[in-house]
Recover the amino acids of this structure.
């Protein structure tokens, strides 16, 4: 299980190596997730032109595919980037933002899952359930919306796909298909700013770039989120200030 | 006339129902307006792919069309989304950012006005005048730049189109073609951060999603802006801090 | 050499005239650079549709071309906007973000350099070196990564192209091909938030819009960055707060 010592070791590695994390992500959160990566000690790059995907992935240490503001062009770039990352043995984190909300998002998430086989999928319970649908036989996929119930479905999805699944919520659940890790922490204000989930995904990529045990990497990223969220909440009683203090807390993080 | 009691009732409804507001908006303000909606208690979604417009509108309670960073593709999506919203009886707020600055913007605003017939148009005086041009016979459209003079033109535009017109400025004016409501408040620092007008538009959509009297909804949104702006200004003497305190103030709003 | 008096005069002109600066820039920093311009007293506009480039440039006082999140469509718009600005005698600032990282970026930077001949190019040392490659004969282009060594290459590039070159780093170097100006100041936290370089580019455009001596304008923009960075660092010990205080400091700037 992830403990504070191994967490600190990986955090130190991020701060020392400053791994470049390439995100193809949604417009809404780009500034916030770039600052999230810089605060933890990693380096962000955002690029989406198909013409530069291979080169950009080649100089990066991890890739984030976030479908929050999709277009067909960007999906195409996600596939090119994803395939390049896999060929080069670099971890891919899929954030299926809004999967289940529209068929384009659900289908895009499924296609990325099937063709790229991301090392880690990070989403909230309903997004993970949308991804699991038609991939998992477990009853309850249709109706379950509770993170704790969703974790069994996620476990089956992880076992079937080989992807580590990270479900964020009041309690976070991370599973590799065999084991389940839980992470407590955070604060309700995290749900009152946009991009907290997306921030969790880029931190997951940062930890995955320094730890090939992706189950541990995904867990540690959620530990970082939880600790920073709690620290921020001690200094903020409203979401504007919270967002700023959250970035500060990631920078000062020392579990 | 909107008073504090009816304002509080609508604010409570937003906080209770957390209506999903779908924005097709400009890149510059997406993070800020998403956080604006979360702060007031609503839920934001941003999506622009034509393929998912109908589904996204179908799960939303209101739609914002903001032409701040236009492209032909996005205009196409705005029309699809707008028509879907109208078919489903969901309020559409048009924010004609920069109408008058380029012919593409003026034309796009006119086409959205004519084809979608938005429930509410919110802009500053010069944008509203640009929209009114060739739609309104009142003299002075060519030269007027003062909000107080613009309101008569806006009133005629509202009467002719059936859209409620909301003009933001030092004093805000809202008209349904018969009545004119004025809202005082705010602070000059609101003009020193980007996206204040766009924030007013998404708040207008949030209030319109809980109050079918769109004249009242538009007025209450400007009351929220004014009150939050004043509260933020009490804690900030410069625009960086102001932006943060404005979000905090919306969250804490209790007229 | 730039002194505090001439700096203050140009700053006053920006605050008085509020020049409109048109940016075609990357998605990540749009909100931050728009707020940077508003804080210093200028006005931002972002637009990228080829159809409105000529009109938008016509009402603007300066143009920023930033290749941070490129696509072929946007490059096309950059060329239209750049040519229009040159025809109208308006200063163009090129920010070759990530030049050297991918061949698409390097090629785009070279094409913009050759075809638009920007008045000022602002980047970090490695970006400037990537732009200089194949344009400058000086040995060391291949390997040099140090700002102080890069400045000689930049000087040759400036002499050959006629563009003022502004290299940001711990010490900033500005050269017109004959003279070299250095600017100290700033803070390491500037490297821990995204968009500091992009902010320097829009400030460079703002100063260039009020001072036709582009060597001086570029220098003064870096003086503003340095002074605001130092002021922000006095009030912040982490990057979230730093970003906010940096905007505040630009607003309060009074060297």
């Amino acid at each position: 299980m992830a403990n504070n010592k191994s967490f600190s070791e990986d955090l130190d590695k991020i701060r020392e190596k400053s791994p470049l994390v390439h995100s193809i992500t949604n417009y809404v959160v780009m500034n916030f997730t770039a600052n999230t990566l810089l605060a933890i000690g990693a380096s962000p790059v955002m690029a989406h032109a198909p013409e530069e995907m291979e080169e950009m992935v080649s100089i990066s240490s991890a890739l984030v595919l976030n479908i929050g503001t999709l277009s067909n062009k960007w999906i195409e770039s996600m596939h090119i980037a994803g395939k390049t990352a896999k060929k080069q043995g670099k971890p891919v984190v899929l954030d299926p933002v809004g999967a289940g909300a529209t068929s384009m998002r659900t289908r895009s998430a499924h296609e990325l899952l099937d063709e790229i086989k991301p090392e880690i999928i990070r989403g909230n319970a309903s997004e993970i359930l949308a991804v699991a649908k038609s991939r998992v036989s477990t009853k309850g996929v249709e109706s379950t919306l509770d993170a704790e119930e969703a974790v069994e479905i996620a476990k089956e999805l992880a076992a079937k796909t080989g992807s580590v699944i990270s479900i964020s919520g009041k309690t976070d659940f991370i599973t590799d298909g065999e084991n389940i890790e839980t992470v407590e922490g955070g604060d309700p204000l995290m749900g009152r700013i946009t991009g907290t989930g997306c921030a969790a995904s880029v931190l997951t990529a940062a930890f995955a770039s320094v730890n090939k045990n992706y189950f541990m990497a995904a867990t540690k990223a959620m530990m970082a989120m939880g600790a920073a969220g709690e620290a921020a909440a001690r200094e903020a009683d409203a979401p504007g200030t919270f967002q700023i203090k959250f970035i500060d807390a990631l920078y000062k993080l020392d579990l």
Notes: The domain at 4-252 of chain C is CATH 3.40.1190.20 (UDP-N-acetylmuramoyl-L-alanine:D-glutamate ligase).
